[in-house]
Amino acid sequence: MGRSEAVGLVLARPARLLGVEPFFMEFIAGIEETLAERRLSVLLHVVATHDEEIATHQRWAARDLVEAVVVVNLTVGDRRPDVLAGLGLPAIMAGAWDGGPDTPAVVTDSTGAVREALARLLELGHRRIARVTGPSALVHTRARTAALTDGCRAAGIEPVLLEGDYSAEAGAELTEQLLRRQERPTAIIYDNDVMAVAGLGAAKAAGIEVPTRLSLLAWDDSTMCRLASPALSTMSVDVHQFGVAVAESVLELIDGRPVTPRWSPAARFVPRGTTAPVTG
To answer: Over the stretch 219-236, which tens digit does the pLDDT of each residue have?
Structure first.
């Protein structure tokens, strides 16, 4: 049994998003379910910045409050892996990861999923494709952007990219901007479910029929996507299983065993009521 019986997870994001964004609650549930078999639990802390996250890690390490930590939302040039190594605090990187193979990680393949999403939209005849992204500093945002740009270039088209912050406000506002363009997109991809649901509302308010005049595709599936009217097509990820995989890696790390290389479940296209062939 470990000294603390806890695994740390710090989320550097606006606390208000946690109440409406299902992703992290499903992710944490997967981690908790697996850790509970060893009588371990998740110590969760929500902060505003990475500096505050690092301060939390330093405090936890000094007080032996956690056996290991999970690091999420990795950014380009992220300082956290090196800081944690300096503290001697075992850590698992979770998500899109562009660091070295010696760092334990459960890696997400953003590129393959974007290629599938784009292929589905191209099959439906869409040539004016936009994407409402997450923050550009995130590794997975940049990976998705590069994959979409390359795929569109190969198809002879140029995507429109607008940066959001995963909030409903961003989803609505950026969708309104896209719909005011002289060459309005026929399809919009959103980097999470919250922005997509808000985008659907903005399209309705603007009198744009979905999916006959505009197709919408959400990233991450959730109850809100299934209950929307029409139900949102999604790139669906088994987030709970992602959490399970992370917890399995954490347990190997705590036990001093080699950490098995793992991938998060691949995103798959789930067609519902917001994607359709281009008309007119």
So the answer is: 989 899 999 999 999 999
d(CA 123, CA 143): 22
Give CA–CA dist 274/211, Å, rounded. 5
CA atoms of 76 and 139, how far apart (whole Å): 6
The fourth-level CATH superfamily of domain 6-108+237-267 is Response regulator (3.40.50.2300)
Q: Read off the tokens for 260.
A: 């098995």
CA distance 168 to 187: 18
In the chain, where are the structural domains located? 6-108+237-267, 110-236
Taking the C-alpha atoms of residue 211 and residue 200, their distance in angstroms, rounded to an integer, is: 10
Q: What is the pLDDT of residues 252-272, one digit of tens each?
A: 999 999 999 999 999 999 999
Task: Quote the CA–CA distance of 211 and 279 in Å, as a whole number.
Answer: 10
- 110-236: which CATH topology? Rossmann fold (3.40.50)
CB 226 within 8 A of CB 193: no
